[in-house]
Amino acid sequence: GKALAATYFGGSKQERSVYGMELDGEGNIVVACLTRSADAPTTRGCFQPKFRGDVDMLVAKIAPDLTKLIWCTYIGGSAGESPRGGLAIDKDDSVVVVGTSPSPDFPTTPGVVQPKLKGPRDSTIVKLKADGSGLVFSTFLGGTGEDDAIMGARLDTDGNIYVAGHTKSTDFPVAAGAPQTKAGGLSDCYLAKLSPDASRIVYA
After folding, report:
1. CA-to-CA distance for 165 and 167, rounded, in angstroms?
2. Over 80: is that where the pLDDT of 187 sits?
3. What is the band of 126 on the pLDDT scale with cuts at 50, 70, 90?
């Protein structure tokens, strides 16, 4: 059949993979991708209008008919970020974007489970305000090993955050009583549940 609407989206360099796409409560389309473009179409009042490093996350909200860019923002530090785990939207239309970052200056917020980078690369969990203007919270999640990355995220009705990913860290913050408390090989999968404000690991 014929497409109802279609559009390009990005800057003058490379945008790679729409890693996450969801609809908000009004039917607007929220997307997250990786970008190498310093001239992506960020919007006035967005959280991070300027490109940092060589690769950033790019998150945008687009009208249902694709005729209007409602907001668009970068998320990143001085190294290379990727929103590999995509995104989820809560009942208030706030946007949870998950992925991975090696940047010590990745934007995190006080009171979260891990405000600072622990290894060469850690998982990231970022919650943007519904209008893209700022952070509700932002945290790393990982150990001192290499290659912590989130590959999927979901929210429950209470707003708890469920993330699944992979890690080479032998000290990933698993919870007491977890079915598998020790790393089993070169790289393991992980599953974690965080409180709605990302201040506490419920289990991992």
Report:
1. 7
2. yes
3. very high
Length of the chain as a residue count: 204
The secondary structure of 176-204 as a DSSP string is TT-S--S--SSSEEEEEEE-TTSS-EEE-
Q: Report the distance separating Cα 32 and Cα 176, nearest Å.
A: 34
For residues 42 and 71, what is the distance between their CA atoms, to the nearest angstrom?
Answer: 7
CA atoms within 13 A on the CB side of 149: 14
pLDDT tens digit string along 48-100?
Answer: 999 999 999 999 999 999 999 999 999 999 999 999 988 999 999 999 999 99
Structure tokens at 127: 């919650």
Q: Is residue 26 within 8 Å of residue 48, measured between CB atoms?
A: no
* CA angle at 152 for the pair 165 and 136, rounded to the nearest 5°: 105
Contacts of 5 (CB under 8 A, 6+ apart): 65, 66, 67
What distance in Å separates the CA atoms of residue 77 and residue 57, rounded to the nearest whole number? 10
Note the pTM of the prediction, 2 decimals: 0.95
Max distance between CA atoms of the chain, in angstroms, equals 53
